[in-house]
């Protein structure tokens, strides 16, 4: 009797832990990494503006509050933010269209990760362009949301299929652990990387990514940063190239995340080693693009469309 109760209790705790974990987006490590990389590309004005906006608890470090939107989204007064972490696309279509896809389950338009990035970019931008205008928004929150959601939109399965909730309902094993595909991409690949290559040290992994940014990827970085005027989805995207980021994510989801990961699969070395470069690149791109976005917002240089 006692032991079966105990087992039930353990089962509950495990289910609860998995629920909580499954709901996170790029785990804490992923968001920290994106923001830490971004910080090293901030222009002087951005450094100052970010310092001014950060809450006391951040102690001047943006990366330390980049998981804040995940921490609050289950509280009832913040529940409206939970659809803003991802966007669902039609099953197997492997493309993303703002007008078709960016809504919550009640079909409220713009309530998805790209809509949110656009929203918070505009809030920060209008405050920064016209400092005399009365600002109705909490710009501290805007900064923390924007930094988090730019990370999220780079996680391929945050732009996944509607039918499986971005991999959340695809149960798989990650080596011996039972989990779901979404969680593999949020957390497990990064965790295994830290264990296998970096002596469990996140700063070491970030250093390695930064080294690649100044060497291996240095030729690609300008193209990651640049706005493409091309992406005219319904809202105006001259300041944010977020529509491109989402399109890349669903492409990668189809090509790498979903491939060979049907329900019940055990994912091991083959999957890990072939997907790791994708995760590394997306973390780095997220960082570069967050920095580019914040630099565009806070720089006093004239803002040429698409520059
Ligand atoms: C835009 O930001 C405001 C302030 O946080 C919020 O009330 C609104 O729901 C947001 N809209 C979207 C689409 O993110
Ligand atoms: C802005 O948002 C932060 C985080 O939610 C909060 O701590 C702070 O009190 C807010 N500021 C104002 C002026 O409401
Ligand atoms: C790995 O990290 C531990 C502390 O976490 C340290 O004692 C050990 O020296 C490190 N090993 C290497 C090879 O750096
Ligand atoms: C750095 O780039 C090399 C070559 O593209 C790649 O093999 C390696 O995995 C990358 N490391 C990181 C941390 O991104
Ligand atoms: C828009 O992008 C597509 C491919 O992404 C390209 O083929 C086309 O030439 C671009 N159009 C313009 C006007 O840049
Ligand atoms: C696009 O944004 C620019 C700059 O914020 C604004 O001047 C323009 O009116 C917007 N266009 C549309 C169609 O919303
Ligand atoms: Zn998130």
UniProtKB/TrEMBL annotation:
<dbReference type="GO" id="GO:0006308">
    <property type="term" value="P:DNA catabolic process"/>
</dbReference>
<dbReference type="GO" id="GO:0003676">
    <property type="term" value="F:nucleic acid binding"/>
</dbReference>
<keyword id="KW-0479">Metal-binding</keyword>
<feature type="signal peptide">
    <location>
        <begin position="1"/>
        <end position="25"/>
    </location>
</feature>
<keyword id="KW-0378">Hydrolase</keyword>
<keyword id="KW-0732">Signal</keyword>
<comment type="similarity">
    <text>Belongs to the nuclease type I family.</text>
</comment>
<keyword id="KW-0255">Endonuclease</keyword>
<keyword id="KW-1015">Disulfide bond</keyword>
<dbReference type="InterPro" id="IPR003154">
    <property type="entry name" value="S1/P1nuclease"/>
</dbReference>
<keyword id="KW-0325">Glycoprotein</keyword>
<dbReference type="GO" id="GO:0046872">
    <property type="term" value="F:metal ion binding"/>
</dbReference>
<dbReference type="InterPro" id="IPR008947">
    <property type="entry name" value="PLipase_C/P1_nuclease_dom_sf"/>
</dbReference>
<dbReference type="GO" id="GO:0004521">
    <property type="term" value="F:RNA endonuclease activity"/>
</dbReference>
<dbReference type="GO" id="GO:0000014">
    <property type="term" value="F:single-stranded DNA endodeoxyribonuclease activity"/>
</dbReference>
<keyword id="KW-0540">Nuclease</keyword>
<dbReference type="Pfam" id="PF02265">
    <property type="entry name" value="S1-P1_nuclease"/>
</dbReference>
<comment type="subunit">
    <text>Monomer.</text>
</comment>
<protein>
    <recommendedName>
        <fullName>Aspergillus nuclease S1</fullName>
        <ecNumber>3.1.30.1</ecNumber>
    </recommendedName>
</protein>
């Amino acid at each position: 009797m006692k032991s079966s109760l105990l087992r039930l209790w353990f089962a509950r705790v495990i289910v609860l832990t998995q629920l909580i974990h499954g709901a996170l987006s790029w785990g804490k490590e992923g968001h920290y990494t994106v923001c830490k990389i971004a910080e090293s590309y901030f222009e002087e004005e951005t450094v100052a503006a970010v310092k001014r906006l950060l809450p006391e608890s951040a102690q001047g470090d943006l990366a330390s509050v980049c998981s804040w939107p995940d921490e609050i989204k289950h509280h009832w007064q913040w529940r409206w933010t939970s659809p803003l972490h991802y966007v669902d696309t039609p099953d197997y279509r492997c493309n993303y269209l703002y007008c078709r896809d960016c809504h919550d389950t009640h079909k409220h338009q713009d309530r998805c990760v790209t809509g949110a990035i656009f929203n918070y970019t505009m809030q920060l931008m209008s405050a920064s362009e016209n400092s005399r205008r009365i600002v109705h928004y909490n710009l501290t929150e805007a900064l923390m949301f924007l930094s988090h959601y730019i990370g999220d939109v780079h996680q391929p399965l945050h732009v996944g299929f509607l039918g499986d909730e971005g991999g959340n309902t695809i149960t798989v094993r990650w080596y011996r652990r039972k989990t779901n595909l979404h969680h593999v991409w949020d957390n497990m690949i990064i965790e295994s990387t830290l264990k296998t290559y970096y002596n469990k040290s996140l700063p070491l992994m970030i250093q390695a990514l930064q080294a690649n940014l100044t060497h291996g990827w240095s030729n690609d970085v300008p193209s990651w940063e640049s706005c493409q005027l091309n992406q005219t989805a319904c809202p105006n995207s001259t300041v944010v190239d977020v529509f491109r980021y989402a399109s890349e994510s669903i492409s990668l989801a189809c090509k790498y995340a979903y491939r060979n990961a049907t329900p019940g699969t055990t994912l091991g070395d083959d999957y890990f080693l072939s997907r790791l470069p994708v995760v590394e690149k997306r973390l780095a791109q997220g960082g570069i693009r967050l920095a580019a976005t914040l630099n565009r917002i806070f720089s006093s240089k004239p803002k040429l469309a698409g520059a």
